[in-house]
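Notes, Module 5: Reading structure tokens.

Key idea: the token line is not a picture. It is a compressed description, and you learn to read it the same way you learned to read a sequence, by spotting repeated patterns. We will look at two proteins. The first is printed below with its tokens.
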Amino acid sequence: MVLENLSSSLKDTLKKIARAMFVDEKLIDELNKEIQRALLKADVNVQLVFNLTKNIKERALKEKPPAGTTQREYLVRIVYEELVKFLGEDKEEIKITKKKPFKIMFVGLYGSGKTTSISKLAKYYSKRGYKVGSLGLDVHRPAAPDQLEQLSTQVKIPCFIDKKEKNPEKIYKKFEKEYSKFDILLIDTAGRDALSSELIKEIKSINKLIKPDENLLVINADIGQAAEKQAKTLHDAGAITGIIITKLDGTAKGGGALSACSATGAKIKFIGIGEKPEDIEEFNPKGFVSRLLGMGDLELLLEKTKDAISQEKAEDLSKKLMKGDFNFIDLYDQMEAMSKMGSLSKIMDLIPGIGGIKDKIPKDMLQVQESKLKKWKYILQSMTKKELEDPEILDSNRIKRIAKGSGTNESEVRELLKQYKQSKKMMKLMKGGSTDQKGMEKLMKKFKGKVKF
């Protein structure tokens, strides 16, 4: 989970509201102290934190909850709304126009993650049907062209580089005739060890030649509040149109970077949440705060689902499940879709109402289940087409062969087969009218302790 410690602290704060008998000034002060403590631990600027909690207190004491809403519920809503406002309020999307190519230029210091972010955005937009290419204009760091080329190959997009040329403007002009073949061109530029007039001058010079549609400043979340200086200087110079914050999953300073950038007026457009090419998402303050508070993020969940499985395939699988005639091929497709969406832990963070439940599940239990799903994929990959289409034919000899071929043991193959049969039986019972209240109660009793997740 992004900013896991902050999320845990904020969830505890909301639990205090839920347990409170009534809302008074004393309770609000206690809650504000908890919020201050949580945000300061996440490296958020002291003044920003005090301004936030001041707004929460003023609203909580002055505003009356709407009809049908309790004071406690309204206080939770105030906390949510003020945190959203604190992190930028509205989602700022990059609107890709039909102009070919739509140019996105990446700027930032050394080690900020520009080249990695290019590969992530390449995958992000390729999934959405755009033809994407990359261009390497970092002529200062010797390994930069090779890195861009490798990462571009990894996400299957063309890459334009010239390892011998030391003038970025000449490199840009060299491939100019090729760019119109692409919907989006992602442009890597040189960084510096520190923010300097030399860096700003170079960015402005390349900017003048290329005229990019978007200039994205890439900032490593590790720098925390120091992100403000970079964002403000480059934003004031007119050199950036948005920000990408990288490595937000692995640092306690992420809250500082997020709030610092928001304070400059420069909009955060994407956040990096892991090392894989798919570990990037559009920054949506409402969904982000909702996740921090354990309320899920349905919009992002639906987006990830669309990326993982086509609507046609989802509808086909749904029909098969409801008929109870799905086989191991369908099960494998389902597992593939889940793996594309991320870890079980990340998926659970996005499901509304699951946050509180997830916190009660031991982390090692989720890891065991993920490990089990991986083994099941290996087992399915070791089956013949006939076995995948008709799992009922699996006998002891076939099970022995499959276990050997998948590097698992026979009991694990039998467990997968048992899980499949139970799921199929459950779907048939549901089809047979067990979806009413009494039927469902009967169904749950029938499977109690049998279906393990």
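Here is the second protein, with the sequence above and the tokens below, as before.
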Amino acid sequence: MASEHSFDIVSEIDLQELANALDQVRKEIIVRYDFKGVPTDIKQEDKALTITTADEHKLRAVRDILETKLMRRGLDIKILGEAKNEPASGGQIRSHIPLLAGIDAENAKKINKLIRDKFPKVKPTIQGETIRVSGKSIDELQAIMTLLKASAPVALPLQFINYR
């Protein structure tokens, strides 16, 4: 049995599940009565989503459908960043929603500090966009996972991988 246990904290987006959720959103919009005759378009770009629709009310409805489908597909809705709305041609409205993935240096430092303050016996190490947490007690590592899930110090979707 290993004397040192570890896991990695990452923030990733399952792009296949995201594509499946977007397909489900498009299908639901086609069959919904309140969207009959309303041109609505959802595009997935490199690290953002673009929603174009008739008005603010329809945009909120599409965003609500999107969040519901993301949760059903097992994706965290924290992957959706702050939307920027702008007028589009033909009296429509366009919303750019950035997709949040990866742990930047500032958020990594916040997570690292939180872990060190609560659990002085474990050793968190920042490795690019990944934080490796290692310690002797499996119970402490599981407590760290629970802590980060419950009171996320950052507005990022966190996953725990490589648990050894």
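Summary for the second protein:
- The chain has two domains: 5-12+102-161, 15-98.
- The chain is about 35% helix and 25% strand.
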